[in-house]
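Escalated from tier 1: calcium ion holo job.
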Amino acid sequence: MDSRNTGIGLLALTACMHSCAAPRDVGQGDGRERPPNIVVLLADDAGYSDFGFQRVCEPDLAPLTPQIDSIARDGACFTSFYMSGAVCSPSRAGLLTGRYQQRFGHEKNIAPGYMKGGLPLTEETVADHLREAGYVTACVGKWHLGYPEDYHPNERGFDLFYGCLQGSRPYFPMEEPTPHRVLLENREPTPEGGYVTDRLGQAAARFIQEHAAEPFFLLVSFTAPHGPLQAKAEDLALPAIASIPKARRRKYAGLVKAMDDSVGEILLALERAGISDNTLVVFTNDNGGQTGTGALNTPLRGKKGTLWEGGVRVPAAMRWPLVIEAGTTIDSPAIALDLLPTFLAMAGQDVPVEAALDGRDLSACLGGEDDTEEVRTFFWRTKGGGGPIALRQGQWKLVWDDRESAPQLFDLSEDISEDVDLAGEYPVLVSELERELLEWESELMEPLWGR
Ligand SMILES: [Ca+2]
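Tier 2 regenerated the structure:
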């Protein structure tokens, strides 16, 4: 433990929490004497309104996510949480580095079999940082951040990798698994068998059991409910799913149900290990819902791949019983780039200035401190220079979807669906936001791959 910085940051954080929200009784001997374990549960392409804990939830999916909902119920629900990307790989690059991925050319998805790169080696991941802080680190699930050996999760800060390198794969066993779709344990292919979402939940639970005695960071990167739409027969037979009229939506619901079951298995593993109270569990989703596979983003406009709210605004909940008061709602906008600095603060690890992070530590707001008065600005761009670009600043969202046309302005406090373009009413505001957006864009590089 000599190289580990295990206490100072947590003590500082806990001190802050005392003034903001009374910490709970730990209920276990050493809970406050070591930094929390961190578990990130990341869904893939799920709909904004497809979870019971969302304010606007589709009634057909509401009964299918009790385990995921429990994270919000027992902790905090974010109502304005964003990803920095609108598709899988760039979004993960932002989340893992805490930096706008367009700064380092990771702006487009990595195509299957692309062998010329991946998450640029200039970048450090949250796993790199947490390992330096003494954490054991694991990535369970899909990687989608590069196929060449130098880009393998084991080279990017993760002690354990259990999952596939590609962005998706069949849920049922493949007769002839390909090297990028087979589930690897580190670099070794594992035998095909079982349902992938179940296997990921089981692998995550095993990791928790094996590492309960030391601080750990566990990223569970589900392939669900990304296509293919292969649900288990037993889930499709459940009355709550069998009664959904549309076949595509039914299958999608089956994928979500299986993911919720795996989340339940992971939460149970934390309970059984006696470390639930001092574990931060984050649930979120990597990009807006893919309506093509049956996801619904009501009431948001757009879907995966777009910079409308439906492409980048995602469900998010965090539970840490020791610090976060149950039933907390956080309306302050936050972005996945905030996770890295938040985790490092919890781990008592200083963030090096040269890391040039774009996010910020959310500890105070998780502890109940109201920071809704602060105006934050988030930026998005997809498809490189000349491609769609957008900004949110406080209540305002500027969307420049087509650079040949004028940007559009929306007041999200009144119009979360981005229905009414107010650009004509606020020309001065539009030109100020446009200036900020272009200034941000001037700091970016062109995408390293993709069309
Ligand atoms: Ca995705």
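Residues 377-441 form a domain with the Arylsulfatase, C-terminal domain fold (CATH 3.30.1120.10).
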